[in-house]
Amino acid sequence: MGFISERLRAQVGYAAILIATFLSGGALAQDSKVNQVNMSPGVTSSGQAIYDLHMAILWICVIIGVLVFGVMFYSIIYHRKSKGFKASNFHESTKVEIAWTVVPFLILIGMAVPATSTLIHVYDTDEAEMDILVTGYQWKWKYEYLNEDGENVSFFSNLRTPQDEIYNTEEKGEHYLLEVDEPVVIPVDTKVRFLVTANDVIHSWWVPELAVKRDAIPGFINETWTRAEKEGIYRGQCAELCGKDHGFMPVVVNVVSKEEYASWLADKQAEAAEIKALMAQTFTMDQLVERGKGVYQSRCAACHGMNGEGGLGLPIAGSAIATGGIAKHLDIGINGVAGTAMQAFGGQLNDVDMAAVITYQRNAFGNNMGDMVQPIDVFNHKKG
Amino acid sequence: MGDHHHGPAKGLSRWLFTTNHKDIGTMYLWFSFAMFILGGAFAMIIRAELFQPGMQLVEPAFFNQMTTLHGLIMVFGAIMPSFVGLANWMIPMMIGAPDMALPRMNNWSFWILPPAFLILASTLFMEGGAPAFGWTFYAPLSTTYAPPSVTYFIFSIHVLGLSSIMGSINIIATVMNMRAPGMTYMKMPLFVWTWLITAFLLVAVMPVLAGAVTMMLMDIHFGTSFFSAAGGGDPVLFQHIFWFFGHPEVYIIILPAFGVVSQIIPAFSRKPLFGYASMVYATAAIAFLSFIVWAHHMYTVGMPIAGELFFMYATMLIAVPTGVKVFNWITTMWRGSMTFETPMLFCIGFLVLFTIGGFTGLMLSIAPADFQYHDSYFVVAHFHYVMVAGAVFSMTAAVYYWLPKWCGRMYNETMGKTHFWISFIGFNITFFPQHFVGLAGMPRRIPDYALQFADFNMMSSIGAFIYGASQIMFLYNVIATIVAGKPTSDEKVWDGAEGLEWTVATPAPYHTFETPPAVR
């Protein structure tokens, strides 16, 4: 029977090691993310407040746990039949029962006070200095900077990790699955309000180090905010199951100095103007195919395959659409196919990229149509 | 039906046409174990894919089907029917009744279950695959964007909901009408009490679930827009309806588990349950609170702050009656004369791990902190601590505790204890690290993850294989007991056990309490 108590002691030791690992994690988390075991306080006042609340409640739970399990294990070790302990017969005590109803209630009130004030702080979206509209798509994010003066800047942010890394044919990079082609850029020490919505299903925009998580729901515009106090790149992911590639739509926020932000914004506005100019141009086949290849790999390959072999989507190689009439092909690219996973890309790609990717599809993977689509064709098709 | 004693019919018809509560209980228990193995197999696929970063075994779309079916089958196929089976076996024997009040309906409520799950499992072979929208099936992913098999899923939910409602009505009718003379409400064993309250919860919320899936059916096939924003509907409405069912649902799962633990701990402490009356009141309080806390599953949907505060305060309150229960169990053990047979080990395992799950539940109730926890692996760890270490451990304890009474044979104690320790260690290796990766930022329901989460995920997968393998030992032990266990004919298999079920012969005869016992 001594054997059992040894095993029990081993069990207590095991639990203690786990708890110790858990608690020492706070310090560990600061310098390394690998094997991080605790929440990060992040780089915002909300993050710090939430972290403090989390740690306070964790410690309260640990203390209660040590007391409760201490009593239990004392009893398990000493009040056992094998030690000849005779059972008592008591089975109620109004005083004790009232005490252990009232005391936890008071502890809960103690927790509710800081929880309420933190919640009020997190919910205060007033007096934001800038607004960004965040829209969830299957399976990417769109960011639109709502400028009162000047052009709105908007772009999609897609997973940058190549399929080869995901399918283990290439070594995985440092930021595997947490890297995008174009991060959202915000200035440091600035209250930024995010207006969060979705285009198709529900997504959730989560950046742990900003302590922001808000569901992106079609038909609703949710508000949340952040004020990053430290420059840096902060990575997160979609948190709400949104279909096949839910695990492959990261969020990357690049917090930069106010000056850097201003010049970035100016560049983006110039780029938008440039695209406008490009739309009026005519391109050669080579230009279109080269541009189209990049667009295909970031936008089409996930469903239609890197080599147009198909997957969740139909094959492009040798397909009746890619080797049929241009008008039908364009129509599907722009308007999607209702009732399927094929989305309407007309609002997601600019006319230059749309022209390029359609041209690429008609002239790659063994499709040798030899015809081209120019931006003006896309524009005219959209006009009807 | 004369009043002469007669045994069961022979062959298949015994099981197809039976109205005997013990036969039906047995079928429920075997069915739920089969579902437990199937849902467990899906979990093994999930953990195998998550063993390393990168996609190795399955495609993301199939991974989502696995998480969905794992959840649905474990909740509706394994845990719920197992406790219904236990209720069938034990409630009549505990209250001194000859059978359930509505025996023919009892047969029917079991026999519609296997077809319901056959339909659900068959969706795996349909075009477009099985449902892949999670067991919570949030619209519009489960409506506009769902695979065609969603219609079969809806039908399956309707049928198993029907089964649950019929089972609950039967339990309510039995407990209210069939108690032996002298068995007043406040003398009923706690397992009967927790089931009575659970049955009321089921009758209240299963129709709500049926309503939710019917609205989905309308949206998909009949042109309505309940949950489609494009048609003026509201995707958040779905979540409110779902969780109005879903939160009571988790107490439907855990209350009977509380009942089991409240039977077993006193038996092996050789001391009456401490605070019987407060246990009953605490159960009722938990049941009441379960109806007003549903939106704590939805802190991030963008509710107004007043709503967040209401649901946060109400949720925190649940800690009070739950705490009362834990304190009562520990005080029952205090100054008892304890022995540690397998059922007791599983109950102590339950007590420790369920309490940890309760602590993380309290942490999750804090709305601002939930903005970090929500939909992360922290939540996955939390609900497996309450669902597996809570419900499944207590169910396992119940099987070891009553198996000798059911079949008149003793299980192998050494193997039972080994099963416990492997389960306990495997469970913790699986789920404890999930707290870490969740806090570090790993979302749930993803088929692949960033490199920083790799070590803990590998640990988690190894633990899952250990825990999974230990269930085979359980199955072997149960079958070996039924076939060739050491025969026992003691009415009281356990010297500390109390209750009417221990006054009948061992093994329990086909019909018990044809004349009501006298209850002091």
State the major sheet of chain A: 5 strands, mixed
Order of helices and strands of chain A: HHHEEEHEEEEEEEHHHHHH
CATH superfamily of the largest domain in chain A: Cupredoxins -  blue copper proteins
Strand content of chain B: under 5%
Name the CATH class of chain B: Mainly Alpha
Kindly identify the CATH topology of chain B: Cytochrome C Oxidase, Chain A
**Helical content of chain A, roughly?**
40-55%
Helical stretch tally of chain B: 16
Which whole number gives the mean pLDDT of chain A? 88
Number of domains of chain A: 3
Instruction: Write down the CATH class of the largest domain in chain A.
Output: Mainly Beta
Content-based structural category of chain A:
alpha+beta
**Count of individual domains of chain B:** 1
Helix percentage range of chain B: 55-70%
Provide a descriptive summary of the structure in words.
- The complex is a heterodimer of chains A (384) and B (520).
- By secondary structure, chain A is of the alpha+beta class.
- The N and C termini of chain A lie far apart (86 Å).
- About 2% of the residues of chain A have low confidence.
- Chain B has a two-stranded antiparallel sheet with strand order 1-2.
- The model of chain B has no long low-confidence stretch (mean pLDDT 95).
- In chain B, α7 packs antiparallel against α8 and α15 runs antiparallel to α16.
- Chain B has one domain: Up-down Bundle (Cytochrome C Oxidase, Chain A).
- Chain B is an all-alpha fold and 520 residues long.
- The longest helix of chain B has 36 residues.
- Chain B starts with 11 loop residues before the first helix and ends in a 33-residue tail after the last strand.
